[in-house]
Specification:
Elements: H1 26-40, E1 43-44, H2 56-67, H3 80-94, E2 104-108, H4 109-121, E3 127-132, H5 136-144, E4 148-153, H6 163-169, E5 174-180, H7 192-205, E6 208-212, E7 238-243, H8 244-247, E8 255-259, H9 262-272, H10 283-293, H11 295-318, E9 323-324, E10 331-335, H12 344-354, E11 357-358, E12 360-361, H13 369-372, E13 375-379, H14 384-394
Parallel strand pairs: 1-11, 3-4, 3-5, 5-6, 6-7
Antiparallel strand pairs: 2-8, 7-8, 9-10, 10-13, 12-13
Helix pairs in contact: 1-12, 2-10, 3-10, 4-5, 4-9, 11-14
GO molecular function, one term: kynurenine-oxoglutarate transaminase activity
EC number: 2.6.1.-
Enzyme class: transferase
């Protein structure tokens, strides 16, 4: 039967397929802002990736791996050299010991580690407490597992964890607490008092804890990263997730990992085998070498990034935007109301046309959008000329 002869229908042929949307609006807004940056020739301080590469020896190691034929599937848990380097890095920096054979797995970035963890442990109806605002993949992954994310405020203007709200958030349905410190998008870093309170709740209610530590080395002003797994009673219930992307300026390589007790990692690997199975074969030996030999490079990069933070902060102040100075990550936040805007999304949609700069509205990271409405996130992991040009353009707003 030709298309002309096909019987008429009252609905399109795809109507029998159900489309389900999960998670936040952040990916859509990120795409919108990136498109605006291109369309308007804007300086893009929106999406968080550096405009410089990691250490030369790491890049050369990846080139050697490709040339020597390391291009097929690596082991599902990651090559032995990388697993060993990950656990030695953990012990060297934090005194935390893990078995490279059973207590670590390599993943396609921290995002896969998070998704596999939620799919492994979150059952329909379970609740996951997370610091709000939260990275956009959190709610999507929890929802895909059938769970529900419960936000606990790290709200402006000070962006300090509300411990009373945290305690009140625990319910009979709570399965785990998700901790992101250093925290995206606010740049807050949890202190010992806050972490002690989280540890007390987790042990009292027998909760799993997932720690997203991808910004563990991007810390400023001598602030210290304190892994929650080092607190009493926490190692046996904590899954630590990190990646090489932020630490070694290689976000496109997507090499991450999860560490924790063997029985928990085994469950994560059981899920991961049906997601990517394995990834990044020639990048794994390069990241192993970077973890083994890159401490000096990381220190220098961190100090350089702190200078960029201060450079952009001074520039934003000069146009009437007072930043909440971050203690970590490569993001800073400003309240845009001093420039006459009540809505950060409106501000971010407007300024590419007005002055040629792109930022990200905070509200896309919140379940309670009003809490983030007046705030905007700026990425300062860019070259000094790029930061200076952004400030020069923003002057026209003040």
């Amino acid at each position: 039967m030709s298309p002309v002869e096909a019987p008429a229908t009252n609905h399109p042929p795809t109507s029998r397929y159900k489309a389900t949307r999960v998670g936040s609006t952040a990916p859509t807004v990120f795409a919108e802002m990136s498109a605006l940056a291109v369309a308007t020739g804007s300086v893009n301080l929106g999406q968080g990736f550096p405009d410089s590469d990691g250490p030369a020896f790491m890049l050369e190691e990846a080139e050697r791996a490709i040339a020597s034929g390391i291009n097929q599937y690596p082991p599902a848990r990651g090559i032995p050299a990388l697993r060993r380097a990950i656990v030695e890095h953990s012990h060297r920096h934090y005194g935390l010991a893990y078995d490279p054979e059973t207590e670590v797995t390599v993943t396609a970035g921290a995002t896969e580690a998070l998704a596999a963890t939620f799919m492994a442990f979150v059952d329909p109806g379970d609740e996951v407490i997370a610091l709000e605002p939260f990275y956009d993949s959190y709610s999507a992954s929890v929802e895909m597992a059938g769970g529900h994310i419960v936000g606990v405020g790290v709200f402006g203007p000070d962006f300090v964890l509300d411990l009373d709200e945290l305690r009140a958030a625990v319910s009979p349905r709570t399965k785990m607490i998700l901790v992101n410190s250093p925290h995206n998008p606010t740049g807050a870093v949890l202190n010992r008092t806050e972490l002690t309170a989280i540890a007390a709740l987790a042990t009292e209610h027998d909760l799993l804890v997932v720690c997203d530590e991808v910004y563990e080395h991007l810390l400023f002003d001598d602030v210290e990263h304190l892994p929650l797994a080092t607190f009493p009673g926490m190692r046996e219930r904590t899954i630590r997730i990190s990646s090489a992307g932020k630490t070694f300026s290689a976000t496109g390589w997507k090499i991450g990992w999860a560490m924790g007790p063997a029985q928990l990692i085994t469950e994560i690997v059981a899920v991961k085998q049906f997601l990517t199975f394995a990834s990044g074969a020639p990048f794994q030996p390069a990241i192993a070498r970077a973890l083994d030999e890159g401490d000096a490079w990381v220190t220098a990069a961190r100090l350089e990034l702190q200078g960029k933070r201060d450079r952009l902060a001074a520039g934003l102040r000069s146009v009437g935007l007072e930043p909440a100075l971050p203690k970590g990550t490569y993001f800073m936040t400003t309240d845009v109301r001093p420039l006459g805007y009540a809505d950060g999304l409106e501000f971010c949609r407007d300024i590419p046309h007005r002055c040629g700069v792109v930022a990200i509205p905070h509200q896309v990271f919140y379940a309670r959008t009003d809490a983030g409405k007046p705030y905007v996130r700026w990425a300062f992991c860019k070259s000094d000329p790029v930061l200076d040009e952004a400030v020069r353009r923003l002057v026209s707003l003040s």
